[in-house]
Design a protein that fits this description.
Blueprint: E1 4-5, H1 18-24, E2 31-32, E3 77-81, H2 86-97, E4 105-108, E5 114-115, E6 126-127, H3 165-171, E7 183-186, E8 191-194, H4 197-206, H5 215-218, H6 230-243, H7 245-250, H8 255-275, H9 289-308, H10 320-330, H11 341-351
Parallel strand pairs: 3-4
Antiparallel strand pairs: 1-2, 3-7, 5-6, 7-8
The protein binds glutathione.
Amino acid sequence: MRATYAVYNLSFLPHLSQSRLLYTGVLKPTRFNSSRSMSSKTTQARTALAEMAKDGAFARVDSVHRSTTVEPVAGRYHLYVSVACPWACGALQAISIKGLNDVISHSITHPTWQRTRPDNPDDSHCGWVFRKASDEPLSNSNSHGSFSGDELCGSGDQIEGCSSIRDLYELSEDTGGKYTTPVLWDKKLKKIVNNESTEILRIINKDFNELANNKSLGLVDLYPEELGEEGNRLNDIIYPNINNGVYRCGFASSQAAYELAFKDLFDALDQMEELLSKQRYLCGSKFTWIDLRLFNTLIRFDEVYAVYFKCNKKLIREYPNLFNYTKDCYQVKGMSGAISMYHIKTHYYTSHVGLNQHSVVPLGNKIDYCSAHDRARFE
Ligand SMILES: N[C@@H](CCC(=O)N[C@@H](CS)C(=O)NCC(=O)O)C(=O)O
């Protein structure tokens, strides 16, 4: 067993308060006891909750694995996801939409973050872990509650036999200290190809079309040429203000930062409501990647973000166009299989113990997204 002391690179976190650093575990020196020990350059393990600017605003740090080169063969790549995560869920949905389930396999984590080095008292990092559906239920990292895995968790990580997403990053010699999903994994080289969902989406959309189990699915194009820059233009509104905007509300640690994020979020939702009063999807009559991105925030909104992240000016079901649009997107073939309200609610309400210490999960409203919608009126 090798013990390695971490050297911290906190240059991106210069303004964290002492209490926040302690809460996230950033101040504690880390000693790895893992069989997959890292070099002495390892940055302190942390989560997105540590990414806070001086004014209390949540400042998400960019993904680091950005290769977009893949060999278009079946069986070489594996997607690791949490289906609670909106970004990862979108990547999994793209695989289904394109008919690539037999080409790119996947594993789904347990929804409740756990200590990733439970045997090391000096390492308090919590993150995604793998559990079999039949394993004992997990409590939150403060030992409250009891949350089981389910059939989506399957048999855990059958590819590398890792017990956490952190293990995969370390296997891939990532010393950055942040362990997010989605992860597109190269089984041949045993390393991460890409961990940025927008790029994984593009890879899935374009590189494996010949292998789609139904050729007509290979032709489904989430980035049709006629889209031009419209998807990117909308993304410049949707990502910072809605997708990431809900996190900017929920993780804000000052009133001012929260209020700014709240205003940006609801202004952008109003804009999308208006746009969707004129056309079926964001870019016209075709469902595209930008719909997939917006949908994954909208479907989590009423159950989680409105309550947990204090995004409570209005619910999505109070916007006639956004609500019907959410149902419409849910009913696109390949979309609903990755939606598990159990994973979504369990993850958010049980993983950030600083936000919900006892991990009590609100019962909330069960919305039937399979029910009729009015979007065909644009046909
Ligand atoms: N930019 C990344 C963000 C991914 C991300 O932040 N995923 C979250 C789950 S929603 C995560 O894994 N967080 C773990 C952590 O913060 O430690 C992407 O879009 O792929």
